[in-house]
Design a protein that fits this description.
The structure is a homodimer. Chain A is α/β, with parallel strands linked by helices. Helices cover 41% and strands 22% of the residues of chain A. In chain A, strands 3-2-1-4-8 form a five-stranded mixed sheet. A five-stranded mixed sheet of chain A has the order 11-10-9-12-13, sandwiched between helices. The two termini of chain A are 17 Å apart. Chains A and B meet through α6 and α8 of A and α6 and α8 of B.
């Protein structure tokens, strides 16, 4: 079996998938904890629990062939090192080496957006080229072509949230002004909306549906920003499919329908944009599947083994 | 030998390169003409002249192994068809088939920016990933990774000139507002500058050097727009190198120095941008070499033959 760990800010989502057809064998969740020691220990626990559940349910004799980890922060995938994962209390951890020793299997560490990209590509059974647009607290993208991740020359491909789209826009945490992330991410929109809900974007969309003019305006800003992200991804990489994932994508059709409508409205004003058929290239990530954890498990498969 | 034709608005630049080490054997130029018949006839003439010159100078017995063509417009590289090359009077021409028959060799037709991308990659002896930023009348880019072009899913990769970067910007010919092309292309800047020079951008830079405040402002707009293009290319594709080519690149250090300065100024305001080291990733296309024609010749080499 192959294990995949999606290490998030509050929980670790761990899965085991079959070596042959990559079907899901088990899924467990444990709390992430804070700091290097806790993250490594809880990662080990989550992996072993997922392996035991898989053995109990489906594959008694199966051993752990590989472990893949998706984690926020700056990831050196070659060395298995994670840096600057601020929300997890990690400054620099050799996560790959530490877990490989404890689990007795090769470990691959991947940026969380890249891991989710691989998972989305696989779970949607895509072919050709895809960009995964992660609308979470921030905004970033990952690229997969013919099943392989494109990480970029220095591991920072897909940082489109920091492309400025308005010279008079808000100052972004990155130091620039009017970054795409300041209009089209869950975090920014929630901050502007305020409120007290656990899921501010959900509350915002509810209020917009109820006719609150401020909510309607903020929702339009978020949706048009997401449309701008789709446009940027296709105008640069010309990917066949853009899959929208991340926390905001949990809105489902509530997000997808206005996003497609925004792209279609733009196409009415531009024959050039119309020729790109952006609206028809957009899909949502499967909402009920552990996309990031499955993608992490797939990223643990060495390219030669996957071919 | 392998022939390459760069078919531009006024002239066809044709080269022959050696099969083995791809060194330049000959170069000729002929007028392009207008309309399908003229373009095909003049393309044939240019190809035969380049072949004869190569045989006379260097390789008497060499025959034409392949022909590659770089041409503006929408190119269906698989079928060798060119559409909507407005400046050449072409609505739809099976250029590949027509020239293959007349020249007795396989012909590959490629978008001109893609052909120049291949040429720049080869002539600069690059490795890894590169984006070619074409600053001509318009603004577009091409991508090469490990020597291979990335054309995109539908052949429109690199159309970054039509990414809007200012919601209050000028209306672009494409129908959108504030496209990158409206601030960072030779055509737009020349139109705003006016003047009567054959090379308006050259006159503009001269006037800016002489202290004309309007020229200084327009030059800054062009340079900052080019910097925005570099930023977009690295924030999406994370290419190792961005090579600036096209008509505006003929300004040489006059363009490259302020472009690097603009990128460094942005990096001072953003540690995130600073970490990307954009300034050090930018290079100019070789100014004295037939980049697009050589790239066209390389595009005529079938992948299996080039490997």
């Amino acid at each position: 079996m192959r294990l995949g760990l999606d290490i998030g800010g509050t929980k670790i989502d761990a899965v085991a998938i079959a070596d042959d057809d990559m079907r899901l064998l088990s899924r467990v969740r444990v709390a992430t904890g804070f700091g290097a020691e806790a993250v490594v220990r809880n990662g080990q626990d989550a992996a072993l629990q997922a392996a035991e559940a898989a053995q109990a349910a489906a594959a008694p004799a199966a051993r752990i062939a590989s472990v893949g980890i998706g984690i926020p922060g700056i990831v050196d995938a070659e060395r298995g090192v994670v840096r600057h994962a601020v929300n997890l209390g990690l400054t620099e951890v050799e996560l790959g080496g530490a877990l490989a020793e404890r689990l007795g299997a090769p470990v691959r560490v991947e940026n969380d957006v890249n891991a989710a990209s691989l998972g989305a590509y696989h779970l949607l059974a895509l072919t050709g080229s895809m960009a995964y647009l992660n609308l979470g607290t921030g905004l970033a993208a990952g690229f997969v072509n013919d099943g392989a991740l494109w990480r970029g020359a220095r591991g920072t491909a897909g940082e489109i949230g920091h492309i400025p789209v308005d010279p008079h826009g808000e100052r972004c945490a990155c130091g620039q002004r009017g970054c795409l992330e300041t209009v089209a991410s869950g975090g920014w929109v929630a901050r502007k909306w305020g409120g007290t809900a656990a899921l501010p974007v959900l509350e915002l969309f509810d209020a917009a549906d109820a006719g609150d003019p401020r909510a309607v305006a903020l929702r339009a800003e978020l949706v048009d920003g997401a449309a701008a992200a789709v446009r940027i991804l296709v105008l640069t990489g010309d990917v066949e499919t853009v899959v929208v994932g991340g926390g905001v994508s949990q809105l489902g059709a509530w997000l997808l329908e206005p996003l497609r409508a925004s792209l279609e409205r733009q196409a009415l004003e531009s024959r050039f944009l119309a020729s790109l058929a952006l609206s028809s290239r957009v899909r949502l990530v499967p909402l009920d599947r552990p996309v990031a954890a499955v993608g992490a498990a797939l990223s643990g498969v060495r390219p030669e083994a996957a071919a």
